[in-house]
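Today's session is about reading a structure prediction critically. Students often jump straight to the picture, but the first step is always the sequence itself: look for stretches that repeat, for charged clusters, for runs of hydrophobic residues. Only then move on to the predicted structure, which in these notes is written as discrete structure tokens rather than atom positions. Here is the chain we will use throughout the hour.
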Amino acid sequence: MPDFAGIAGSKSSMICVPDPGLKSSNPMKKLHAIVIGATGATGQQIVAQLLEDNAFDKISIFVRKTPHYSHDKLMIHKIDFSRLADYKDLIKGDVLFSALGTTIKEAGSKKNQYLVDYTYQYEFAKMAAENSISRYALVSSIGADQKSLFFYPKIKGELEVSVKLLKFQKIHIYQPPILIRPTELSRTYEKIAIPIFKSFNKIRLLKSQKPLDVSTLAKKMISEIKSKKTELFKTFKPEEIF
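Below is the predicted structure for this chain, in token form.
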């Protein structure tokens, strides 16, 4: 677990100018980010980088277990994701980063994985949109397709289709390839697959499958959600994230 207490929380004169068309009563206002999936590999990187980013003055994370770190910009909400409606009034801010996810092995069943990868993420995003959060960035997966014959890409595809119907002013969906995580957070298949895909990439095969470090994904998500130049509704393919 990273020690966010050691990250400088300095205040600077840097400001974040909202995208054209994005609702803001104060163009000088810094941003309040909300993160779910904050204890996972990608989520940890998103939080760490947000804490260092002077465009954001508040980061709220919604977690099942209280993490062992603190920061003057960080607000931690320990919640029961099966009772999200109880916390709707807390889901307020400017940007939602959704990096929640699990595996069948971790969840114990397809039913439980569906709850985490679809139900909880969709319901949280729906409440965020209803509470006028304007920007949304979602970590999906390469090959996400609601018509897929395979369970994992199918639920990721279903989630993408559903969240696109929500009333956010800016929606960014990321379909990263296999992710390079810190050793203690790596999954078994990733430990096996990453060296293989790296070898293929050296000979220019499977370029879209080039392993991606979670820190690179987090940096891209934060940069693009702040940018005035990025499309308001965009799905980032693997080759667009590097």
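Discussion point for the tutorial: The CA atoms of residues 116 and 137 lie 17 Å apart.
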